[in-house]
Structure formats: structure tokens, C-alpha cells
Amino acid sequence: MEILAFGVQDDERPLIERAFAGEHEVRCVDVFLNRDTAAIARGYEAISTSVNADLGGPVLQTLAAGGTQFIAQRSTGFNNIDLDVAERLALTVARVSTYSPYSVAEFAWTLAMAVNRRIVRAANRTRDFDFRLEGLMGRDLRGRTVGVIGTGRIGEAFTRIAHGFGMNLLGWDLAENPACRDLGMRYVEREELFREADVVSLHVPLLPSTEHLVDAHALDLMKDDAILVNSSRGGLVDTRALVDVLRAGRLLGVGLDVYEAEAGLFFYDKSLDVVTDDVLARLMTFPNVVVTSHQAYYTEDAVTEIVDTTARNVRDYVAGRRSENVLVPALPPR
Fold first, then answer.
1. pLDDT tens digits for range 239-257
2. CA-CA distance, 225 to 205, in Å (whole number)?
3. 214 pLDDT exceeds 90?
4. Region for residue 21 given its phi and psi (left: phi exceeds 0; alpha: psi -120 to 50; beta: otherwise)
């Protein structure tokens, strides 16, 4: 069987080709799946999609009409997939349930440290041979308090790093993680976490119940000199409310690897285009904000694991097997 893989980065291509070698042919394309590109999949029974693919109803209908029966998404999150429509169209959809949590956890701390120690500003200055220290003062993390929203595998890895820094640990989740408790984490109500934490990091999935979890009220609760980090999903943060808070001179800084309106922006080169997203444009003007392009997961270790799991999902589909990665019930064995 030949598989069409959408949104393949140059770094990913050899990993994908190696994962499928000897079993299935795979055609890698760098275009991302959306309404304009869905027709490319005509004739492909199985496709693989990237984290920012548009798998809404209209795209799924185009895929099904073109003969696609199986979609293997190369990511854990699936807020971009209309699962109800997929089930009505008898499409089988699988994802990557888990991959290296350290990739995201370590990057979240990279963002926090870059904000705290003014790394971007310092690097830009020294490129111009400006070696002044004015405006670059940061703070020790030891003895300060970190608030971890979501203490699953990634949140736990993030917490272990915070424990290594010697920080006080606050957590919020629907289910407590015993490993985090053993590190000294104290689980509290969300409002208390926002009030007490010097660093707040988000590690929950984007669901209807978590959309704009960090809204104007949550931001008002945060300390004026707190740091906010989001390496999970952009929709967790109400960006307009965040801009208002930053404009008022509050928060020590913000590190964002995701943005709620990133579709059509992130993973593309927009350097020569006119920026039409006024909220993102305003956000980028603040000197205490670091924005990266949804790259927290992007390590060789994590991407290899993601690709290998995707290949395994394809094998399971061909064999008529189900696994914990299947989001929409698999078709009966053929």
C-alpha cells in the first residue's frame, strides 16, 4: 500500500521513509492538509497528517470521497479532527498517544529561562557588539514557586526539572499524579495556583472544558511579576486578554510555543507577507514575550518515536487490529 504523508518537514522525511521501509511505500509532501490540498489524497487509502492539519468536516468529506479510509495523525492532540464526521464517513482515525515527554518539558523550561534571563534581548544586543547589562536582570528560580497545570507525563517531566531547581511545587489536575506528590507537589485549586505561582506552565490538552483556561480572570489573579509558559495548545490562552495584561505592564514575561490562531501561520514562511493577524502582531511587539513556532516536540528522539508509532498504526490498520491509538473505531478486518 502507498501512503501519502502531508506536512513533512525536511528533517522528518528520512525518519518517515526509514520507518516504512520494506513494508509500504510512502509519498512525502511538504504541503499541509486543508480544504485546498485535500484533493491531493485522491486514490490513497491511507494518509498521514501533521499536527496542524485541518481535519474538519469538509476536509474529511473530500478525503472519503477520494477513497481515503485511514488517517494516521502524527501527533497526540486531536482537537483539529471532527471525530463525529469521521465516524459517520466510516473513516478510521489514529493518533500517537504518547511520545517523549522530555522534549516538551525541557522546551517549556527553555522558554521560561529565556524569558527570565532575557536571552533573546541579550543575544540580539551582543550581535551588535552591545555588551551592556541594563535591562537583563533575571531572578533565581530556587525557592520560588512553580504552578503546573496538568501533571500527566509531560507535566511530571516538567515538575522533575522544577524540583531540580529547588522550587516549591504547586499542581492542578483532575487526577493527582503520585510521582509529583512524591516530589513534594501540593495540589491546589486552580485559582490558588494562579495567585501563588511565580511561573505557570500549561500541560493539559485542548478540550471544550479547557479552552481559554487562562482567561482574563486567571490573568488578573497572577502576580504582576509572574511568568506564563504555554507549550501545549494555543487555545488554552485567551490571547486578547493576554495582550491587554501585557499592555498594562503586568507579568515579568510570557513564553509561547503555540498560538490559538496559528493555523495557516506556523510552519510557514511568512517573512515577506503583510501580517493580517493584529493580535499576534501586537503580541510580538512586547520585549518580554518569546514566541516560537510549535517546536517543543521537535527533537530527534520524539519525532522518531512519533513516526515509529505512526508506522505501527498503519500496520495495525492493515491487519485489522485496534490499539489505544485509535480515535474512531477501526474498520472490520478485510
1. 999 999 999 999 999 999 9
2. 26
3. yes
4. beta
pLDDT for res 331 = 46
Residues 211 and 167 in one domain: yes
> What single-letter DSSP state applies at residue 47?
E
Residues 137 and 229 in one domain: yes
262 assigned to active site: yes
Q: What are the contacts of 211-218 at 24+ separation with CB within 8 A?
A: 211/235, 211/236, 212/236, 212/237, 212/238, 212/241, 213/149, 213/237, 214/238, 214/241, 214/242, 215/241, 216/241, 216/244, 216/245, 218/190, 218/191, 218/194
Q: Are residues 56 and 144 in the same domain?
A: no
d(CA 260, CA 277): 11
> Is residue 233 flagged as an active site residue?
yes
Determine which one of 233, 282, 315, 322 is catalytic.
Answer: 233
CA distance 308 to 233: 23
Q: Which of 12, 156, 196, 262 is catalytic?
A: 262
**How would you classify residue 291: left for phi > 0, otherwise alpha for psi between -120 and 50, otherwise beta?**
beta
pTM comes to 0.91
Same domain, residue pair 224 and 261: yes
